[in-house]
Amino acid sequence: MPAYRIIVDLSDRTLYLLDSDVVVRSYPVGIGRMVTETPTGEYMIINKQADPGGPFGAFWMGLSKPHYGIHGTNDPSSIGHLVSHGCIRMYNEDVVALAQTVPIHTRVTIRP
């Protein structure tokens, strides 16, 4: 059984999916603006919701830090930029693929 975990590297604006410490996929992401930075630390995915509506795109995965998550976007041009209120934005097709791969309780490390 795979041992998935996620590392979000804010400096290169990339989300890495690891299986037993081996990177199996990487995805470009949009992250928090200077005034609403994406928080660094250790979290876990605590819930998932398809088609959450609004600016959250095709999928939402909530983190153990309240009000923060990994989600899609209705503005694909924002990926790769400092644009969010602290959440991690992904292309809709990427967040759906990731959500289908990782279970709830997957560890998420966000590093500077």
UniProtKB/TrEMBL annotation:
Active site: H71 (proton donor/acceptor), C87 (nucleophile)
Pfam families per record: YkuD
Highest rank taxon of the organism: Bacteria
PROSITE patterns the UniProt entry points to: LD_TPASE (PS52029)
Associated pathway: Cell wall biogenesis; peptidoglycan biosynthesis
Gene Ontology CC: extracellular region
InterPro entries: LD-transpeptidase, LD_TPept_cat_dom, Transpep_catalytic_dom
Keyword field: Cell shape, Cell wall biogenesis/degradation, Glycosyltransferase, Hydrolase, Peptidoglycan synthesis, Transferase
Gene3D superfamilies associated with the record: L,D-transpeptidase catalytic domain-like
GO biological process: cell wall organization; peptidoglycan-protein cross-linking; regulation of cell shape
Any one Gene Ontology molecular-function term assigned to this protein's record: peptidoglycan L,D-transpeptidase activity
Domain (L,D-TPase catalytic) ranges: 4-111
UniProt similarity note: Belongs to the YkuD family.
Protein name: L,D-TPase catalytic domain-containing protein
Species of origin: Paenibacillus radicis
